[in-house]
Amino acid sequence: MTSFDRTLYQRLIELLVEARRKADVTQLELGRRIGQRQTVISKIETEERRLDAAEFLLVSRAIGVDPYELMRRAETDCGSLP
Q1: Does 43 score more than 60 pLDDT?
Q2: pTM of the model as a whole
Q3: Helices marked H in 3-82 — which ranges?
Q4: Most buried by CB count within 10 Å: which residue of 7, 37, 49, 71?
Q5: Residue 5 above 80 pLDDT?
Q6: Which pLDDT score, from 0 to 100, does residue 72 have?
Q7: How far apart are CA 32 and CA 9, in angstroms?
Q8: With 0-12 CB in 10 A as exposed, 13-18 as middle and 19+ as buried, what is 4?
Q9: Between the CA of residue 80 and those of 24, 60, 74, 77, what are the distances in Å?
Q10: Domains in the chain, CATH or no CATH each
């Protein structure tokens, strides 16, 4: 059992991937924009590597999306959380 509900985090990552694809940004390009390798982006998107809050802001802005809007959508999609 994890210390928190993974549903919200999973939805947040799904929305981030959707936003990247919609912006027509490849994993390779996103990695370049944030100074990381493509493999790091892949691991984030497959949840092998977790994003912290600062990284989430950096990645969102590198894609060109509002990180706060993604968070609101994820929370709404997941319903009422404890």
Answers
A1: yes
A2: 0.88
A3: 6-22, 27-34, 38-45, 53-63, 67-78
A4: 71
A5: no
A6: 95
A7: 24
A8: exposed
A9: 32, 24, 11, 9
A10: 6-75 (1.10.260.40)
